[in-house]
Structure formats: C-alpha cells, structure tokens
Amino acid sequence: MQKIKLFTYTLVACLLVIWLSVEGWAFRQFLTQPISSQTESQVVSIPKGATARQVVQRLYDAQLVRHPEWLLWVLKWRGQAEQVKAGEIEIRPNWTLDELIDALIQGKTVTYPLTLIAGETVQQSLANLQQAPKLNKVLDYGDLAAIQAALGLKHPLEGQFLPETYFYSAGETDLSVLQRSHASLRKTLDQAWQNRAKDLPIQTPYEALILASIVEKETGYAPERPMIAGVFVNRLRKGMRLQSDPTIIYGMGAAYDGNIRKKDIQTKTAYNTYRINGLPPTPIALASADAIRAVLNPATTQALYFVSKGNGQHVFSNTLQEHNRAVRKYILSRQ
What is the H or E stretch that residue 197 is in? Predict the structure, then answer.
C-alpha cells in the first residue's frame, strides 16, 4: 500500500512538472510570438468606460489574441489595466504582446483623412465635410452664420480655411476639424503678412486673403502665381479694376451655367471686378498657402494684363496693345 501511494505521488508530481513545463513554454510563446495567426489587420473599437476584461474579450472575439486570461493577467501585473484608451485601434496580427499593449495604452487610434481643396468654395468644403465618415456632425450646415458664430469668426466663412489634408479620429466633431483648419490658415496668413514685401496696396491680412483667393482661381499652375499676383498688385496701384473672370462667376452664384456672356460682364454685383473698384468684399474660394505668399511677395513686373494660352499657363503683357495681340492669338483663334 505504501508503495502504491508513493508511486501515485510521484506520478502526480511528474505530471505537474510536465504540465508546468508545457504551460511555461506556451506562456513564453505568448509573450514573444505574434499575437494571432490571422493575416489581415483589424480595426477594433474600444468604447469609453470599457474595462480591461471587456477589451480583452473583444480582442479574443476578433481572434486577435489566443489567451485572453493571460493578456488580462499581464495588464494587471504591469499596473496597466486601467490605462487602456478608448477609440478605434488598428491591430496587426504580427505584433508582439508588448506592441499590442503599447497600442492599447497609448491610444494609437485610427485616423481618417479629410481634404479641403484649394479653389473650392465654402459650400463645397462643407458638403465634403458633411460626407466625411465617422465624424460627429454637430453643425447646422444650412446656417452659415451659425457656423461662423461657433467658430468665433469676425468675417464670413468664405475662404476662412486652409486647403490641405486633415486627419481626424472617429467621434471627433466637424467643428473641431474646422477650428484646426482655420487655425492653420491664421498661422500661414500671419507668417506671410509678417514677411510681406514693402509698399503693397494691401492694407490688412484679410485683404491679402481676398486677393489670394482670386489668384488661386486664376491659375492652377503654381509657378505663375507670383506673376498673376504682380499683375493684380500693379492694377491696384494704378487704380485699375482687377477685371478677373472668376469674380464674375462667383457673383453670379447659381446663375452661372459654364459661360460668361457680355451681359454678365456688364452686370454689377458686389464681386464683379469688371464693374467695381478694388477688391470684392470677401474671398471667392479657399486660397492655398502658395497663393497667399504670392500675393504678399508678388513678382516684380510691369505687366498689367494676362491671357490664358489654353494649357493652364498665361501670356503676360505690359500694354493693352500687346494684350490685344495675345487675345487674338490665344482666344479668338480658338473660337
């Protein structure tokens, strides 16, 4: 009987050692090997207030961890169970356990791009914003004055945002994105204003923004912007009207059908620079940083006119006679 008990104890002890060895090996693999055998990354949404146990369960349900109880134990042992951040996290199955935990506690959330395009109007920008996925919409898109008030802007919304790509996380508000975009515009405009050329016929940064929006609409060819700006600055200095076609189009609003007719040129609106002196009351589009800098440091030129070649570039002329020849060559010859 004694021998049987001894044999039993020895067998149990051996089995326990074997089990601990196997579990120990498995745990070491858990700590050092990729967290999952999946081949594709997955986005996991972690809600606010979720406990570490709930987060671990979500990962297990998504087949992104093999041993949820071990992950929970490691988080608690490291004192990081309460540090898991809410949000959307893109988790890669080839991560190690340390990389997974770093992502969870650092809140490496998924971001989504939103691009505001140079030359588009505020209505076009807002339509783009309204369609952005997973953005928390808190603005009334039918009330521009309310949006202006929410942003605390002195001037109307047109042209008040810097056209570039912004990244946001799920749940961020549309107001927050616009605030960041306007702050970027202010920074760019203020820096350009501080470094502006001397003796410009532009009295305020806002006037510079208005003219930059016209330059933006006149050409998509960036190297020409300082020359386009130089022409408009020369005209302002001489008291000549800007005579910019994009200002006619903006003043026509929904009536514009793709063509500018003689009656449209002759119709006076607040924006038609063929009929008004100086600058229109607001920008006519989003102005790029290049257009802003071009207006505040325009090319030194005697040119007062320019005409499109039809390929996105322009011919510049110092006199009306030269300009008329260019019009006959590049405009009338195509009609």
Answer: none
Q: What is the pLDDT of residue 28?
A: 57
Of 103, 107, 172, 99, residue with least CA distance to 133: 172
Q: Running DSSP on this structure, what letter comes out for residue 270?
A: S
Neighbour-count burial of 15, counting CB atoms closer than 10 A to its CB (0-12 exposed, 13-18 middle, 19+ buried): exposed
Query: In angstroms, what CA-CA distances link 314 with 38, 228, 300, 322?
Result: 56, 9, 17, 13
Beta bridge partners, 168, equal 112
Tokens of 323: 């300009």
Residues 122, 158 contacting (CB under 8 angstroms): yes
The DSSP letter of residue 134 is: T
pTM for the whole thing? 0.82
Instruction: For residue 171, give both structure tokens.
Output: 């749940």
Q: Which alpha helices (DSSP H) does 131-244 contain, by range?
A: 144-151, 174-194, 205-218, 225-238
Q: What percent of the chain has pLDDT over 90?
A: 59
Mean pLDDT of 148-175: 96
CA atoms within 13 A on the CB side of 49: 0
- DSSP H or E run through 116: none
Q: Please, what sign has the CA dihedral across residues 252, 257, 259, 264?
A: negative
> Angle, nearest 10°, between helix axes 289-296 and 205-218?
120
CA–CA separation, 288 and 187 (whole Å): 13
105 CB neighbour count, 10 Å cutoff: 16
